[in-house]
Amino acid sequence: MTATRAGRIVTYTALTLGALITLFPYYWLAVMASNTTADIYSSPPTWAFGGEFFHNVGQVFAKIDFFGSLLNTLVVAIVTTLLVLFFDSLAAFTFAKYRFPGSSLLFGVVLATFVVPTQLSAIPQFTIMAHLGWVGDLKALIVPAAANAFGIFWMRQYAQTAIADELLEAARMDGCGFFRTYLTVALPVLRPALAFLGIFTFVNAWNDYLWPLVVLIDSNHVTLQVALSQLNGLYVKDYSVVMAGTLVAIVPLVVVFLFGARHFIRNLAAGALKG
């Protein structure tokens, strides 16, 4: 009994320390966003919240089109996430439960795209977007990201064990075609994996900086990350304003993560109880 209690104390202590270490960067971000740049550079640095937060946020709104870029980022992140969830889950369901000529080779080609760094694909993608006339348009961010190898691999691994072959046989006996089986049998089972992939895709689309910087040459269609980079002056950097903009920009991410994580855990627990 004593050993069990000691084990729980060690576990809870480790979890608490891990949570504090994880949350500290956000606390420090809030401290810097509520002070002046001079306070940030002071030695020793200040650890307390200041009274400059609303002034710094006002400077953010005055220097960049925050809400316009926020809307652009929301559109890109939401549409990209929905497309990734559909195409990746559809491809993964096919690779996991159906065999057709060349399926293994095609899946190997999909996995091989992991080897190619994102930076190397920027120039070919930009050339394609230029030929399509999409440079400076949000379509140039959404369409190339509509499917990805990681999502297909992740969903395939989950579908292989989560979707029972007996369910597919029962669906076929009931006269279900491929898409009806996918919608009525596969998707309900894949919800925990879809929740994780949705969070992962949304965060990546929200935080993407390099590709929007390259392809969105029209300043009226910049995303939030590119707009925040404009807060950095050429010679003078007001880090308190930059941190204030960053703090406001991560609020939607926190909301999406809290909602998605709860959905993920709920569906995962429901699947465990059914199992």
From TrEMBL:
Question: Where does it reside?
Answer: Cell membrane
Q: Which residues cross the membrane?
A: 9-29, 70-93, 105-126, 138-155, 182-206, 239-259
Q: Which UniProt keywords apply?
A: Cell membrane, Membrane, Transmembrane, Transmembrane helix, Transport
Its membrane topology is listed as: Multi-pass membrane protein
Q: What sequence ranges are listed for the domain ABC transmembrane type-1?
A: 70-260
Q: Which Pfam families match?
A: BPD_transp_1
Q: Does the keyword Membrane apply?
A: yes
Query: What family does this chain come from, according to its entry?
Result: Belongs to the binding-protein-dependent transport system permease family.
Q: Which PANTHER family match?
A: ABC TRANSPORTER PERMEASE PROTEIN MG189-RELATED (PTHR43744:SF12), ABC TRANSPORTER PERMEASE PROTEIN MG189-RELATED-RELATED (PTHR43744)
Protein name, UniProt field: Carbohydrate ABC transporter permease
